[in-house]
What we know:
Blueprint: H1 15-47, H2 50-57, H3 60-87, H4 90-125, H5 133-145, H6 147-162, H7 167-190, H8 195-219, H9 235-267, H10 271-307, H11 312-338, H12 340-347, H13 351-364, H14 369-383, H15 388-412, H16 416-420, H17 422-457
Helix pairs in contact: 1-2, 1-7, 1-8, 1-10, 2-5, 2-10, 3-4, 3-6, 3-9, 3-10, 4-5, 4-6, 5-8, 6-8, 7-8, 9-15, 10-11, 10-12, 10-13, 10-14, 11-14, 12-13, 14-17, 15-17
Amino acid sequence: MIRTKYEIDLTNGCIWKKILLFALPLMFSSVLQLLYNACDIVVIGRFRDHTALSAISSTSSLINLIINLFIGLSVGSNIVMAKCYGQNDKEKAQKIVSTSIIISLISGLLLGVFGVLFAKQLLLLMGSPSDVINLATIYLQIFFIGMPFNLLYNFGASILRASGDTKRPLYFLLISGIFNVGANLLFVIVFNMSTDGVALATIISQFISAMLILITLLKEKGFCHLSLKELKIDKKVLFEISKVGLPAGLQGTIFSISNVIIQSSVNFFGSYVMAGNGAAANLEGFIYACMNAFYQASITFTSQNYGAKKYDNISKILKYNLYLVVLFGGILGITAYLSSGFLLNIYTTDPDVIKIGTIRMGIICVPYFLCGIMDVVVGSLRGLGKSTTPMIVSLLGVCGLRIIWIFTIFRSNMNLGLLYVSYPISWIITFIILMICFINLYRKIVSFETNLTKQTTGIV
Length: 460
């Protein structure tokens, strides 16, 4: 197979080094993508009052709730493409690229219309206070207008990642991220805009990154080539993508439901707590993005090696990703907490808001690596084509436990710290169950292949 300079052979050589080569650009890409929202919050927090900051902070869990189903489909594209890449099936790869791009555009248009029409009603259901709901509605409506660009980038990047290419998506986000920072400052400071200005800057930036990834796919000569003449949905490929992508998307959506319920509980404490919670959650997002790179590595490496029938590598991939996510997650989580005063001051100078944010970071940031190891095991299971199992386990272990916790333990004592502690407890329980599922599945795969080899070679 002829590879470009951006692609990485994920089935041969030193695995842990290749995981780092794959994960580091992806890590920086995820961080840059988060800078869209972070820049919104920082600019608004610095140049507007806490009401505007609360308005933007209160929308993140709702945005994730609505778009996670379709982001899950992009994970499905990555898994199917990576397996196809491992099998060296170029003809099928072209169908995957074409189908994925069409899905992204249709999904983006549907989400855009839905978000514009129902933004305020959804915020009302979350219990958004009257002093922030109008600003939050404007931000949300403009944000969803740019959803086709958001999904086009995510699907396109997932296709490139399947071949081991995590560098070009990073370059594209770097370009659009720089523009986003400049546009935010221009719209808010010079044009005196509020949440509408930062939302507008975000969707223009997303348009830039989406166009760059689209041009790249059109110019590609190998597996990731997009041909406009052959642009159509392949039903068989769509089914494969949906089979692994929909459970991932449903899991993300229901995860977000539990987070929306938690956000609604946070809203109960008022706009100052909302602002502190939002700033801390945004900082945690950067740590999660770094850890999530190893979840993505787990999916792509496992899928390629599974497609290439290199089963011995699969257990090594899980082991190395677990080591790396604990290392990165532990160091970043502890460092973020110890620097919480300084970091939160970037978002706001209000001491009451900073105090609330520090409480959250103390409970969630330090053990955040537990979330990372949970996700890595989910990635390995999905890479093996099992997406429904981790969905069910995660929903019961994370979402179910958090919801029960909120309506029982938290309701009996409305304490903010008691609300946050539901996070690490749910991560530990879910990780243990997922690890048991992986061990059982891996043993079955190895046993099946061993028996199949014996039958083929005539060994009894």
